[in-house]
Write a structure and sequence with these properties.
single chain, 347 residues, alpha/beta, two-stranded antiparallel ribbon
Length: 347
């Protein structure tokens, strides 16, 4: 099993330049510890995400690391020009010497899409058209494409990616529709949320992929050539009590940021796409399985149980979040990478 790192890089009650420096150092430590990939989210107009242009930050990561792969998770395709997206993907792939993995999506928040003048009820069809256009552009010397939303005529593609035909595509979904689409396309896949929700999504993805027959861009390091991942918030300390003492305020702070736009717009999540896919507080998240906090032995046993039950082969460890200090995050990472990772990687 492979293990990756996930992050929003949210506001952390300290200067932004300091926050960025800390994250770069943290990712360098993850690189040295053997993490497979760093996956960075994209959100807009919210303190949940201080890197709403993930490619800029990943350019810095590319030059600060040596082995860890880079994975935007996800680029919100309805917010980009497909031509510009092809150029950014190509640049990042060369800057990282072929370590780029491209996560794509339409955006989970209707508020964020609306700020960018994109109607969320049209976002799926815009996303699919953009995906087809970008896929064509990455393999073309000259791009000619005609779709319902994007049209290009004989555009010279001066920039091409280092990986051929192009970097692997990933898709993250918290629902059956998106999970099924990802399997139909043969993409690498990531989900999140409670054990029940994650299992439903993984099963839907696997069923669709089985009908397709094989992944579009096989990765030999994963069984069957495809990554099937689940995100988990992980807090590790010497004892269960110590871990939970600082994990609870960090996670509750993080949840407040996740709900920040919903709260601002007085939206319960019942009347929009902004579905509630996780517990309302630390205790509920622990109960549903999306948060794991404790000693190395406790964390290891719970992750082994979950990954086996879910049938996943990739863990996205969310280790640095909320208002955690850099020192606390590094201590947790040290315990996780030395006492938890080695046994998980043998699963």
């Amino acid at each position: 099993m492979q293990i990756g790192l996930f992050d929003h890089i949210e506001h952390g009650e300290r200067p932004l330049a300091q926050l960025f420096d800390e994250r770069l150092e943290f990712i360098k430590a993850c690189d040295a510890a053997g993490f497979y990939c760093v996956h960075l989210a994209e959100h807009h107009a919210t303190p949940l995400n201080m890197v709403p242009v993930p490619g800029v930050f990943l350019g810095a990561v590319a030059r600060a690391t040596k082995n860890i792969r880079l994975g935007p998770l996800v680029y919100l395709l309805p917010l980009y020009s497909p031509l510009r997206m092809v150029e950014e993907i190509s640049m990042l792939d060369h800057l990282s010497h072929g370590r780029l993995d491209v996560g794509i999506g339409r955006g989970v928040s209707p508020f964020e899409l609306k700020y960018h003048k994109v109607e969320h009820d049209r976002s799926r069809e815009i996303f699919i058209d953009a995906f087809k256009c970008i896929s064509a552009g990455l393999v073309s010397e000259e791009l000619t494409y005609s779709g319902p939303y994007y049209t290009y005529e004989k555009v010279p593609m001066a920039l091409r990616p280092m990986q051929r035909p192009f970097p692997p595509f990933w898709y993250g979904s918290s629902g059956i529709e998106g999970s099924t689409w990802a399997g139909e396309q043969g993409l690498h896949f990531v989900t999140l949320g409670s054990m029940q929700l994650a299992k439903q999504n993984i099963d839907a993805f696997k069923a669709a992929l089985a009908k397709r027959g094989k992944p579009a861009h096989p990765k030999p390091e994963f069984p069957g050539g495809v990554a099937i991942g689940v995100q988990r918030h992980i807090f590790v300390d010497e004892t269960d009590e110590k871990a939970r003492a600082w994990a609870k305020p960090a996670m509750d702070y993080h949840l407040a940021h996740i709900n920040w736009l919903r709260t601002k717009h007085n939206d319960s999540g019942l009347t929009s796409r902004l579905r509630v896919v996780r517990g309302a507080n630390f205790e509920e998240c622990v109960a549903e399985g999306s948060v794991i906090a404790g000693s190395p032995a406790t964390v290891r046993a719970e992750l082994e149980r979950q990954m086996t039950e879910l049938g996943a082969n990739y863990l996205l460890a969310y280790l640095f979040l909320g208002n955690m200090s850099y020192e606390v995050a590094r201590r947790s990472l040290q315990l996780f990478s030395t006492e938890v990772m080695p046994k998980l990687q043998r699963l």
